[in-house]
Design goal:
This protein is an all-alpha fold. It has a domain of 118 residues: Serine Threonine Protein Phosphatase 5, Tetratricopeptide repeat, CATH 1.25.40. The protein is 63% helix and 0% strand. The protein is globular. The two termini are 30 Å apart.
Length: 316
Amino acid sequence: MKQTTIAGAVMLLLCGVLHGSETPKLIDRAAAGDADSTKDPFGPYKMYMAYRPYQAFDWDMWLRRHRADPEAIVKRDREVAATGDALAENNLGTCYAKGEGVEKDLAEAAKWYLKAAEHGEWRAQFALGFMYVEGEGGVPKDPAKAVEWYRKAADQGDSWSQFNLGFMYANGDGVPQNTAEALEWYRKSAALGASRAQYALGLMYRRGQGVPKDPVEAAAWYRKAAELGNPLAQCALALSYIQGDGVARDSAEAAKWYHRVAEGQDKYAEYNLAEIYNTGDGIKKDSAEAIIWYRRAANQGLAEAENSLAAMGVTD
């Protein structure tokens, strides 16, 4: 079976296949990649579990703010952490996790994150939760422990922890599967402006998972996330406009959202955008523009785009 990344499988899943001579033949991303993503209704959320909290630490901003070199920051944090300061303990954990100012050492990072987490630092609680999910830094894989730490951070209002806690309830990972609990945590995360949670809610309304199936509500959540720049939501909203699912059918609006995703060099969005231009479905047919987007997708190895170019007589 052809392999693909989870993120790729998700993006495949969202673009669907539309049949008929007057509609663009969009790629069915699930069929093109990981078949398991079609069986697991919560599979699309798994890509967010790959978020590493310490990778998001803006070290350059930290250096500019404190006008210090990494070694000096580590020295100061170590001195402050020795007093039991939770933020300094967390920052020291991040230094070890990133290898900034010290040699990278995830085991040492986990030690400092644990100290900070036990002192109530939500950033460390989230980081520690992730380590238990992945089994990093000498921490054993233990979804139940991950849930424990995510819950502590989530209760303090961390949207990432709320989202991941929702995911774990949705997937029955570390806790009994509970769609109602998943929805509750997704809603809390979405209310804080987390596009990933807004997108997840859109999927659940589209599929009727734990809520009545409601394409209008699904499209509304997709739009919230799409306007925040979430590429999965942008692709889902584009598909909604193509299908007239929850919104009035509008190929021009679909093209607008596919443009946003395609500009991020997503080959499937590039292909789907080319299809819209090539068919002239709801917008002015533009073969030259279609060729541009087919080429971009083909340059990333998408066979369907190569076939479309050949069908148009484009050989170079």
